[in-house]
Amino acid sequence: MSIRITTLGNGLRVVTDEMAAVETVSVGVWVAVGTRHEAKEQNGISHLLEHMAFKGTERRSAQAIVEEIEDVGGHLNAYTGRENTAYFAKVLADDLPLAVDIIADILQNSTFDEQELKRERAVIIQEIHQAQDTPDDIIFDHFQEAAFPDQPMGRPVLGSAELVEGMERQTIMDYMRGEYSAERIVLAAAGKLDHDAFVAAAEAAFTGLAQNPEAAPEPLLYQGGEYRESRDLEQVHLVLGFAGLSHDDPDHYALAVFSTLFGGGMSSRLFQEAREKRGLVYNIYSFSTSYDDGGLFGIYAGTGRTEAAELMPLISEQLLRGCEAVSDSEVARARAQLKANTLMGLESTSARCEQAARQLQVFGRVIPTDEIIAKIDAVGSQDVLRAAGRVAASKPTFATIGPDGSNIETLAQIAARLS
After folding, report:
1. How far apart are CA 216 and CA 202, in angstroms?
2. Choosing from 50, 68, 120, 273, which is the catalytic residue?
3. What does the mean pLDDT of the chain come to?
4. What is the percentage of the chain residues whose pLDDT exceeds 70?
5. How far is 148 from 388, CA to CA, in rounded Å?
6. pLDDT digits (tens, 9 = 90+) for 345-362
7. Measuring CA to CA, which residue among 77, 15, 5, 34 is closest to residue 291?
């Protein structure tokens, strides 16, 4: 990687990853603002703001924004997360100045037209209803809320229909001015580009960002809990989880290795035991999600009504076994999978752009690939067992949506199995 970083006079950090062998560039801004930074009565405002940024500026209408980027064959998109919001584009190398100009425009000059806001509220409410109608999607919101009750981190990224419907133009504008300060933004690009020319374009384009001191978000407090919802469905959707590890935890990579060997692929323990040997599920996997000061480790499964009662004891049994012993071959296979995923990501300008931005935000630097590979290679069996034991020692969190009569154990019974 050819990484260069420059901090502009207004505090905006600019990072580039030059890739001479490609003809495209991925570029975007990553703002360290998300659901975690919202007041309870404003839950969903970060996501609504992300939508509204594309709905017209002082210089461009909503239609002009998409037409200008698509006129050159480019793509423009965005997403909102729990700790950050991103606005990004992919274009041919010669069109990088246009992409920078459009992204800077929507971040600094959005007008939040009342009619556009009315329409977009309706669109997002449709999105909320769609998520609620998708049990294997909404189950993770309920799991998150059970793990972090009465906290910003436990609230849904989309917010609620009622809150979104009541958000006014001035509220959104005030939120953007208050939260989208230069010091909380990273402008990143990866692909065929020149760093100095990119910095010059950034200096010319990003002149209207706010200069507000960053307020520390509410500390993350994992508590664990339970959510159960009865629905007339063919399948039971469930998530069992525990307190995970932060981005900079010494066992971060060890837990990633454990998650991979435990439920990360077709050769994993969960897939082999639950699907291949017993036919209890169609889909089952584990995941490890890290935040700035904590995380979540969990297992998702979709199963039938009659199979659900047998599946939960199996998951608990496999987790206990995973905390007691792992083979060197399993660890080696999981390390190979993680390394392959890391190295394959280097072939994508979009992945490298996002990686550079997020690492700069989280760690204050871009971590060299060789360093990441070395950390993965350094993970041994005892490291995996230690990380798994740390996670499994926390109070469990359980969420399920499905039909009556599935006879799934209570949270207390699950906790007793794991004790």
Report:
1. 27
2. 50
3. 95
4. 100
5. 21
6. 999 999 999 999 999 999
7. 34
β-strands 3-7, 13-18 pairing? antiparallel
State how far the Cα of 274 lies from the Cα of 308, in Å rounded to an integer.
11
Tell which residue, 216, 155, 212, has the closest CA to residue 185. 212
Q: Determine the Cα–Cα distance for residues 268 and 30; give it in Å rounded to an integer.
A: 34
pLDDT in tens, 88-122: 999 999 999 999 999 999 999 999 999 999 999 99
Say how far apart CA 368 and CA 381 lie, in whole Å.
25
Stretch among 72-86, 175-189, 403-417 having the lowest mean pLDDT:
403-417
Show the 3-state SS of 386-400.
HHHHHHHCCCCEEEE
Pick from 74, 72, 67, 108: nearest CA to 88:
74
Using the predicted structure, report yes or no on whether residue 233 has a pLDDT greater than 70. yes
Dist CA 270 CA 274 (whole Å)? 6
CA gyration radius, the chain? 23
The end-to-end CA distance of the chain, in Å, is 46
- How far apart CA 109 and CA 102 sit, in angstroms, is 10
For residue 402, list its beta bridge partners. 230
pTM surpassing 0.90?
yes
* Cα distances (Å, whole numbers) of residue 30 to 85, 89, 121, 183, 239: 6, 12, 23, 11, 29
Q: How far apart are CA 327 and CA 325, in angstroms?
A: 7
The per-residue pLDDT for 1 is: 58
Alpha-helical regions (H) of 285-348: 305-324, 328-345
List the structure tokens of 3: 């990484």
HSE toward the beta carbon, residue 199, CA cutoff 13 A = 17
Amino acid at 70: E
Q: Active-site residue 67, yes or no?
A: no
Read off the amino acid at residue 244. G
